[in-house]
Structure formats: structure tokens, C-alpha cells
Design a protein that fits this description.
By secondary structure, the protein is mainly β. It has two domains: 110 residues, Immunoglobulin-like (Sandwich), CATH 2.60.40.2310; 280 residues. The chain is built from one helix and 38 strands. The strands form five sheets. It has a 13-stranded parallel beta barrel with strand order 13-15-18-21-24-26-28-32-27-25-22-19-16. A five-stranded antiparallel sheet has the order 1-3-8-5-6, with no helix packed on it. Strands 2-10-9-4-7 form a five-stranded mixed sheet, with no helix packed on it. The longest helix is centred in the N-terminal third of the chain and has 27 residues. The protein is elongated and about 85 Å long.
Length: 470
């Protein structure tokens, strides 16, 4: 009996041994499959600590091999190298790059990440970024590294509730999104600087209020968070400001909004008889898309400048009501080919099925304006018949091929005359001494220009009154 058991055991063992051997061999053999991918504990190692002094924080990243065979990571590299704010420790070794790391089947590798920043140094970016790159069987994967840099107030996918006031004591930096909640108010005081990381945006929800309260010598600034010289006039660094449907009493005064994808996107009010946005003394410029995108909105504007947009400087869709006085539009976009006109006005849009939907436009009043740019025609009026389309240009300098003989719509307008900006391509839209805009306006209740210069009688066209330099 004993001998029989021994024979059976030997037979079973000899049968299973090749299986065990093959299984072990598979686990020990490096898999060259080009479709192999690593898995990570996170796609972004985020250091959300604001450092009061020179800061040093360590976090960990776990790299997983979820496959049934060994993987060779041919290279792990800190992309910023020695110049990076970050340091990494891989498999117990402090490196900026390391090669040929074998990761067994169903095993993991710990990488420790450390960041050292001095938030009091002005050349430290507001958000310090880098990445770790992994190369496996020819495939490249990256994990992002993100840290707060300079001393500032930081908002990462944040929600503002109640009544909130921002002052200028520190900058405000938005990473991801910042939303003003329903029935909440955000008031931004003079001199405040608001910086946005790549693709970040500010949105005001239904029944919320945004109040930007800049002053002549202390405007409120909105721009990307990269402050080195290369990014000074680089468009597309952040997304934009969105005023969603049925906002209440939005007000923007003395703001500079620049270098985004768009400046303002304004949806429709709850009651078309109410002004949804007061927009005064504000510069919106250097956007890859629109300066102002208005959808059935209600906007009253005085002394504003919209310039250098890859799309339309002012885009009005689906009607609404508008009053723009002393507006300057100057569009000399040079970063790509611009096919769109600078000013587009329509009384319709399209629904999700592609069908036209209409809404009355009007009154849409443009008084003492300069609407100019590099294209041959900078104004398009696009209307659906039998739907109100009430547009008036009252004393303006217009770049257009429209028939301006309709004196009810075009009142004392100059057509296709160069306004002689001091430097339009460089976004300096002040007018020089030979400008045909000088003295061609009529009094419209606007007593000072965007720089605080007293308007003459008659006033000049556009946001800037000509000021003779003695």
C-alpha cells in the first residue's frame, strides 16, 4: 500500500512539475509586448501645501506591474533634470534618471518625490510643475508633478459659497476651475491679481454675482500663471470667464483680461429687461478665440477695448440686447490665419439637432465706436427674416464692406478709414494726432475715457481720447 502511494505521488509530481516550471519561467521572463502599460497610484502627484518658509515635502508614487510576467522599465526620468524643483528617489536611490528597472509580475515599485520651494522668491512660478517619464517597451507614460509656488491664495476645482471678498494682499491662483455657487457673490477689490493655470477657468453659476471692482490706477488683472517674459503676450494660457444663464447684476470695472482662449462668455439673463452685465473701462485682449461671446445676453458697456483675437472680438449669437459706447475693437491677430470678422451679430443660433432657433436682437446700439482690424471686412450682420434685428451704429469708424447707405442704421459713420492707432499690432489702441477718430463723436454721457482723460466736445471715437503731449 505504501509503495503504491509513493508511485502515485511520483506520477502526480512528474505531471505537475512542467506546469510549475512553465509558470515560473513565464513570471521570470521579461515580456517585450509593445502594448504593455504600467499602472500608477495617481496620474498627478499634487503638493497642495502653501509653504510659509522654504518648504520641503515628500510624497510617494506607486508604480504597478499588473501583468503576469516581468516588465523591464528601460528608463525613469525626471523631465526637469537638475534644474527641477523636484527630486525623486527610485528603489532607494536619489536620481534624476535611472535605467533598466525590472519589475516582477504583479509587483510594485515605490518612488518618493520631494519638492523644495521658496514661496517668497518672485522668480518662483505660482504653480511649479514637472513630470516623471517612464519608458517601457518603447512606450512613454508620464505622471505629473504639481506644487504651489509663490505665496498666494490657491483654488483647485473650488466652489465659492456665500459672500466672498478678495483683496490684493496676495495673488489668487486658480488650478482647474473656480465656480461661484448659486446665490453666492464674489467681489474682487482694486489691484487684485488673479492667475490661472493651463485650461483653468472662472464660472459664475445661475443666480450668482461676480463684481470686479477695479480702479483707474489699480485695475484687477486676469491672466495665465506663467510670469516669465516668454509668456508675457502668449495667448491661450488659460480658458476664460464664464457668466452662466440668469446671473444677477454682474459688474466688471477697470479689469484687464488677457492671454486666454476667450475673455468673457456671457449667457442670457432670466429677464431680458434686466441688464446682466455692466462692463466698463475694461481691456480684453490676446485671445485665441473670442474676446466676448454673448448668447442672448444683456450687456451695457462703456470705454472698453477688445483686441487681438484669433476669432471674433465680439460675437453675438441668439439675439439679446446690447449698449456699447466708446468701444474700441482693434484686431491685428498674427499668430494664425483669422477668417472670422471682428464683430458678428445675429438673431439666431442652432439647437442640438442642428435646427435654427431664433431670438430678437435689439436694441443693439454702438455709439462713438471704432471697429477695425486687418481683415477687409470686420463686421457681419447675420439675421433671420421676420425676427427683430435692431442694430444701430451711431457715429463710428467702421472697417466693413456693408452697404452703409441706410442712415437709420448707420448714423454719421466713417467707413474704411485707418484710425491710426499708435501701434495696433502691438495692442496699443490709443490714437495719434492724425486719427480721423478725433472729434468725430457726439456727447453720450461718457465724460472721461478709459485712462481718466476728460472727453472733449465733441468727443473722440473709441475708448481713448486723444491726449496731446506737450
Amino acid at each position: 500500500m505504501k509503495r503504491r502511494l509513493i508511485i502515485i505521488f511520483v506520477l502526480i509530481f512528474s505531471t505537475l512539475l512542467p506546469v510549475f516550471f512553465i509558470a515560473c519561467q513565464k513570471k521570470d521572463k521579461i515580456d517585450p509586448n509593445p502594448d504593455i502599460r504600467l499602472a500608477f497610484s495617481t496620474d498627478t502627484v499634487f503638493f497642495d501645501t502653501v509653504f510659509p518658509t522654504v518648504g520641503s515635502v515628500t510624497k510617494q508614487l506607486v508604480v504597478y506591474n499588473t501583468h503576469s510576467s516581468k516588465i523591464l522599465i528601460s528608463n525613469i526620468r525626471l523631465m526637469g533634470g537638475q534644474a527641477s524643483f523636484y527630486r525623486i528617489n527610485v528603489d532607494g536611490e536619489a536620481v534624476t534618471a535611472i535605467a533598466n528597472i525590472e519589475l516582477p509580475a504583479n509587483d510594485s515599485l515605490y518612488i518618493f518625490v520631494r519638492v523644495t520651494l521658496d514661496p517668497n522668491q518672485e522668480d518662483t512660478p505660482f504653480i511649479a510643475t514637472d513630470s516623471i517619464e517612464f519608458q517601457t517597451n518603447g512606450n512613454l507614460q508620464q505622471v505629473q508633478l504639481v506644487s504651489w509656488g509663490q505665496n498666494a491664495f490657491f483654488y483647485r476645482n473650488a466652489l465659492i459659497s456665500g459672500n466672498t471678498v478678495w483683496d490684493s494682499l496676495k495673488a489668487h491662483v486658480v488650478y482647474g476651475s473656480l465656480r461661484i455657487d448659486t446665490n453666492a457673490t464674489l467681489s474682487i477689490l482694486p489691484g487684485t491679481k488673479v492667475y490661472f493655470h493651463h485650461n483653468a477657468y472662472l464660472a459664475a453659476s445661475y443666480h450668482s454675482t461676480l463684481r470686479i471692482m477695479g480702479e483707474l490706477n489699480h485695475p484687477v488683472r486676469f491672466q495665465g500663471d506663467r510670469l516669465d517674459y516668454f509668456y508675457k503676450d502668449l495667448p491661450g494660457q488659460w480658458y476664460g470667464i464664464i457668466l452662466e444663464r440668469a446671473g444677477i447684476n454682474h459688474e466688471i470695472n477697470y479689469a484687464i483680461i488677457k492671454n486666454g482662449v476667450f475673455g468673457l462668455a456671457v449667457d442670457s439673463p432670466e429677464d431680458q429687461n434686466n441688464i446682466m452685465l455692466l462692463l466698463h473701462n475694461t481691456i480684453i485682449q490676446n485671445m485665441t478665440s473670442y474676446g466676448i461671446f454673448a448668447y442672448g445676453a444683456s450687456i451695457q458697456s462703456v470705454n472698453c477695448v477688445v483686441g487681438n483675437c484669433g476669432g471674433r472680438a465680439l460675437n453675438v449669437e441668439y439675439g439679446g440686447s446690447y449698449d456699447f459706447r466708446q468701444l474700441t475693437v482693434g484686431n491685428y491677430w498674427y499668430s494664425s490665419v483669422r477668417l472670422s470678422p471682428s464683430v458678428y451679430l445675429s438673431n439666431y443660433s442652432y439647437d442640438t439637432t442642428g435646427q435654427k432657433i431664433t431670438n430678437p436682437l435689439g436694441p443693439a446700439f454702438f455709439g462713438n465706436v471704432i471697429l477695425y482690424g486687418a481683415n477687409e471686412d470686420e463686421i457681419v450682420l447675420d439675421s433671420v427674416a421676420a425676427v427683430p434685428f435692431e442694430v444701430t451704429f451711431d457715429h463710428g469708424l467702421l472697417k466693413t464692406r456693408l452697404n452703409t447707405s441706410n442712415t437709420g442704421r448707420f448714423i454719421d459713420c466713417q467707413v474704411n478709414k485707418d484710425p491710426k492707432f499708435l501701434n495696433g499690432p502691438d495692442m496699443d489702441y490709443r490714437i495719434d494726432s492724425l486719427s480721423p477718430a478725433i472729434g468725430k463723436g457726439i456727447p453720450m454721457g461718457v465724460f472721461y475715457d478709459i485712462k481718466g482723460v476728460a472727453r472733449g466736445n465733441p468727443p473722440d471715437l473709441g475708448a481713448y481720447q486723444y491726449l496731446k503731449v506737450e
